[in-house]
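Job type: complex structure
Entries:
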Amino acid sequence: MEELISDNIYLILLLPLWIFLIIMLGRFFSVYVNKAIICGLSLFASLSGAISSLWLYGIFTPDKVYESTFPFIKINDFIISCGLHIDRIALIFVSTLFIISFLVQLFSISYMKNEKKEYRFYALLNLFNFALGSLFFSPNLFQTYVFWEIAGLVSYLLIGFDYLKHEKSLASKKVFLINRIGDTAFLAGIIMCSYIMYEYAPCKNLAELSFFDMNTISTLVSVYSSHFLFLIICGLFIIGVVVKSAQIPFYPWLQDAMEAKLPVSALLHSSTLVALGVYLIIRMTPFLTLSPSMLKLIVLIGLLTAFVCSLSASVQSHPKKALAYSTSAQFGLMFFAIGTLNIKAGLILFVAHALIKSMLFLTLPEENEKWDLTKFIIFVIGGLSLSGIILSGFCSKEIFACSLGLRGMTALAIISLLTAFYISRLTIVIMKTNGLEKKNDTKTEYLSIIGLLLLNILFCICLAKSESCKITMPFLTAVFGILIVFILHLKNLLVQMSHTFPSCYNGFYLDKLYMTTILDVYNKIAEISAKFDINILSNYKPAQVLARTGVKIASFVETYIMNGMVKCITVCAKKLSTIDLRIQTGNIQRYNLYAFIILTAIIVCLVIADLTIITGGGQ
Amino acid sequence: MAEITLYHYLVISLLLFIIGLVGSIMCKNIIKVLICIEFILAGVNINFAAFANYCGGAEGDGFVMILFYTGIGAVELAVAIYIFYFMYSKKQTDNVYQYGDL
């Protein structure tokens, strides 16, 4: 049974791809007209993925690794293989992905009902599932990189789903461009690693950077390269990770990504796309363990992000932006956990955060609409859970806190205080601006939100059973934070906070800094090159002569060679068609003659072949 | 006077076949075409008979095949004449070149 599943596990990855193709190609067969088929197919794909990956997680023992690969690119003795590499870490990520994606699709059935071209949304979600699933199951860094790019592209398309609205398309462009920095750094790291392995390692198989022997690779890289080079390689990987997870120097892109639709932000920017960074850093831990300074850097980045983004989140007036800052902050905590080499706590934090944050996103009210009472209650539960007072948030934070020393505990307690502060403030602000209302309509939205709540409780029970949870400092500070919010609320100080702390509100001007510096530099370069062109190049004789001869050569090639080739093709086609026309007379006897000639030719050929075989056999 | 061997029969059948082929391709008159097709069949039949007589055993498979072929020829002739009759009544001509447009 186990082998049957692990041999067919690629099906849960291919199913979303097939559905993507069916929906996108279905335009020609008008499949997309029938929404029931589309929704049913994509729900089925993600549900089957979730069930089978969870089942496999139950079967797999912690140390078991299932790997099946085949060579994909061969350049002399440098082979890049592709295939599947399944272990518990990958299964945790994949099952979280498919569960969240299933519930989000359930949510969007009623949410996206009135959208135009909604079939495109489902198709892209399926492609996204495929890309991320393949990324989490990929056996080496090269395949990871390929699917990393696909995930970036699909996130661009999903954020710019309403591409006709100007600000949305701008936001998606910005997200894509900032992500490119990380992608480039990641690719550079891969290439450097692979080069060192290929040149110096005793075994050429190591050059494909398989996760299976990452320990060997990291030691070999640290041996064969100088200390400085090793730090550079680690730094490149860390840049790639930090950009994807929206950590400190690069977090502004996550706030722009909030232009997306609610389900899209719930899926992409709470649990899956941002999780890529955490996934990669967990895979690269062998590298980090070899350089303690890099571990310290990651802890620093994580803590600083958590602190700064929590501060920014606590003064935001726009709910989605506040949640975006909160996502950055929570991922900062995960980085903190991984930086202290507590990978288990990092994974628990990740799963808990994914469940809670998608719940929070899905329960947000529409702008200028009253807040539904059931949604409000679930949002409050989610908020309390996020700040670490009840449910899985509590469990995960306490498990993490138990493993820390006094200093780490203090840092976590401060962040926990801020978390409780911003989430409860956000609840009160939304309640004040939108107002509460009880609605009584049956929608699939409620189904998915309640499903998320149930999963949250289930995860909490699982955690409580396996680990012992003690009440520690973060819990107390979180309660304290909520108390502060209540006091401030009684004094009516909450709403105007965004005006009293402008630097926090603007995310400490990081975004503005990038815009101004990069735009300035770009404009300066453009100006200088324009001056160079106008003043120097246009007056310089040899350059003019060169340009003129170039134009002449180009026009010669254009008129005589390229046109000649095109003409040749058309003339040939015309000649062939006239010959063909002459053959087709419509006269039966002609056709008879052709048939006879062809038959005779075939028979003659057969006879000659037969004779040669006979004589050949005789010799 | 030399004995009549298998090759004489084969040459005759080949001649008949070629006459039939060329005639069925070249002739304009529809009846002539039909007759030439019969020539082809006759050539093939002679071939069968010759082989049955000279090479075959006592079972006479070749002669049975000739019976079949004669039957096929008769049926084909009947069908063809019926079709040609219709074509003639439609086109008012017996020239095959006029039948090109089906």
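Summary: The first helix of chain B runs from residue 6 to 26. Residues 5 and 50 of chain B are 9 Å apart (CA to CA).
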